[in-house]
Amino acid sequence: MSESKRAGGLARKKALTPLQRKQIAQKAGLASAKMRSKPLIKATHGTADHPLKIGNLEIPCYVLEDGTRVLTQGGVLSAMSLPNKGGSEGRTRLARFFDGQAFAPYVSEDLANSTNDPIRFRTTSGAIAYGFPAEMLVHLCEAILKARDAGLSDRYARIIAQADIIMRGLATTGIVALVDEVTGYQRDRPRDALAKIFEAFVNKEIQRWIRRFPPEFYENLFRLRGIPYSVEQGQRRPAYFGHLTNDIVYKRLAPNILEELQRVNPVDPDKGTRKSTHHQRLTNDIGINALNSHIGSVVALMAITPDGEYDQFIELLDKVKPRLNGHDAEDFRD
Prior knowledge:
Blueprint: H1 3-15, H2 18-37, E1 41-45, E2 52-54, E3 57-59, E4 61-64, E5 69-72, H3 73-79, H4 93-98, H5 109-116, E6 119-122, E7 128-133, H6 135-151, H7 157-169, H8 175-183, H9 185-201, H10 215-224, H11 231-235, H12 241-253, H13 257-264, H14 286-303, H15 310-320
Parallel strand pairs: 1-6
Antiparallel strand pairs: 1-4, 2-3, 4-5, 5-7, 6-7
């Protein structure tokens, strides 16, 4: 620190009254206590030796157990060419800098709150670290460049240059996608999304048998396949109708849900049958509601398809309710 800055700091400190100094100390203590009282979140992905690289900048990054992508506090400060030092009143160096008159008009309330409240977490190596949501870096750079356009003095030239480097480096790739790639989270993300879908759709217990497929479903299926239908015949459906039902219903109900149902409801090798129907393994709320809604759509499409035109029906179904797989898990909404 230069002598002039040191002298300025001492002068400001001396100008404070004893009450003001006490209030600042109390506020710093409260902020520190608040930070320590928060549950310590664990990082599931990311390592210090695989930082996010933007141009010549390297910023350590992690994905936390709740899915939050974070950049370390020290990494953000370094990227912005700011000293990595603690702030007065328990606040970060980043927050104090952007609260200044030069940038305050361009920093939103949410962004200001984020800079004041870094996330305390445990890295994959076990160390305790502080970080900010990855998206915040972009918002900070936007604020800096807006302030530049409004006219900033030369004293901010270095931080403006850093913001410009970062924004140009992110011009073609989103910050979240970059963090996911660096940490390896992109490989596990679909698996995590599927696990949540299976938990919502598939019940661990076998439910009481209730008719879920209305007679119209099978009547139309017989008609579209060009097979004469009667009530008695409806009870004795061709064996391959099971494969058709899997394709029409379960492969389109939710990503990989058919595979999961087959896993929890396997065929008994001795009897050659399953212990229960697939719909008996669906959850009462999400699973069954999704099944009822899907069957309603299927029957409506069947009804408008001419006799014997099964392939035409499938073409319509592919447009309205396409087959789903694991790659669809992240974007799936039941």
